[in-house]
Specification:
homodimer, 302 residues, alpha/beta, Rossmann fold, 6-phosphogluconate dehydrogenase C-terminal fold, 2 domains, 6-stranded parallel beta sheet, 3-stranded mixed beta sheet, 12 helices, 50% helix, prephenate dehydrogenase (NAD+) activity (chains A, B), aromatic amino acid biosynthesis (chains A, B), NAD(P)-bd_dom_sf (chains A, B)
Amino acid sequence: MLPFARVSVIGLGLIGSSVARAVRQHMPTVRLTGHDADPTVRATAERLQLCDDIADTAGAAVTDADLVLLCVPVGAMGAAAAEFAADLPADAIVSDVGSSKAGVAAALRAALPDAQIVPAHPVAGTENSGPEAGFASLFHGRWCILTPVEGTNPAAVARVEAFWQALGANVETMTPEHHDLVLAVTSHLPHLIAYTIVGTASDLEQVTCSEVIKYSAGGFRDFTRIAASDPTMWRDVFLANKDAVLEMLQRFSEDLTALQRAIRWGDGDALFDLFTRTRAIRRSIIEQGQDEARPDFGRSHE
Amino acid sequence: MLPFARVSVIGLGLIGSSVARAVRQHMPTVRLTGHDADPTVRATAERLQLCDDIADTAGAAVTDADLVLLCVPVGAMGAAAAEFAADLPADAIVSDVGSSKAGVAAALRAALPDAQIVPAHPVAGTENSGPEAGFASLFHGRWCILTPVEGTNPAAVARVEAFWQALGANVETMTPEHHDLVLAVTSHLPHLIAYTIVGTASDLEQVTCSEVIKYSAGGFRDFTRIAASDPTMWRDVFLANKDAVLEMLQRFSEDLTALQRAIRWGDGDALFDLFTRTRAIRRSIIEQGQDEARPDFGRSHE
């Protein structure tokens, strides 16, 4: 038994187009409808045959859906939901893939006061954007976090859970507030820091951009990958999850200041202790299948 | 014509053992001698047959060398050089692979006042350590920076340059001081930040370590790779290149504070502008062959 028979994907970028491809692969009998506010993206989705049907309006995309999945930047969720509110079938479940959850849940609830809403966040992605960047296996072995609020129908939650499991993901449930704190440290702060250091490096007078690029294999290039992520998506994430991001940033700054002091005073033991401790986390991530065991992320060295 | 006929590698960790393997592959007629201060590493090197000969002392390793290559942590360079000073042939060239150059050059000069010294830094590596982690293609397409000082024999510099080119590297020359500034931003600061954020994440009360690991695919896991690098090597780098690292860290902190303020005040345009600018650097790094073009570093998604 498939959890849903008619799935509508609103927003056909990296995540939306990956969901479409994964549904095609894992649930080929599902009737798949797509929509994107951008006509160029719709045309590309038509050409790639990502869905059975690409609708020109969000309303037309949802009329017979039993799952509507919003895959737009978190700052656009409320407006996107409002666009199809009048056309949403009464028994449809609405979900999303946004990287922050408390704000998105509130925006969806405001736009769709009577809908069954099960907010979700598949923790997966690449630095690329757009309908051509997606691929069916993006969610394999990754975690998808559901953040239903009190009063959500457990059957609706179970169907969304089954949907993500069918796409190859593991599913976990937590409150929106806890999600936003966890992701602030595992995703938002890393992106913020990566964007910052890439900006810092490109603004120096003593070192040219061409030197930064040439010698980036010393570590810098790792940061440039996530700093190449979609600007609109990430602007929205930082604005939507402001409090948790600022709290984590404060912790990070304090720790960085402590390390700065250790370097200034030549406290090699403090540096060595931290550098030894951090190795263990990498090991656990690999053991739990959340990253490549091959050195250097398995980059080719030929 | 090979640049050297008898090469001695002192220190058989990731870099030293990769040099040995690369020499074997690209210059099979070179007579290769190795030494490591750690008897366990020497035994492993024997078992792996990394060299024609593994010497029990640094002195015995260099007696007939025409190139001695120091591949030990930068804080150990001076002591390692002093160990073989009495046995060094008068016409041998001494070089190294250290990640900071001004301090290493001074330490080598003090230990070997009359030697031909051509300090070098191949900008390449992985997060793994030890003789088993090395591989022959590590330097392919990477840059190796030479930092000869005034008075160095140009023929000696040319031979070291030819050596690294034979191992597949591109070679560039600059002053030790400029090297230390460039690498502070392209390598040392990224490592420092990665070590810090991994430490911050593992110290939180509200978010457990197990959650950090589970949801690390949101970006955090990228940082854990370089934060798994060798603790001794990196402690030494930060102590040896203190001034340049502190200067770059100051710049980074200022930029991070500006971004923090933009988030607090909801200045989405400032965020969007930075996030758009940083994409271009990633593109240049890929165009210049300094990183994978495949998304997500080419990580497997199956």
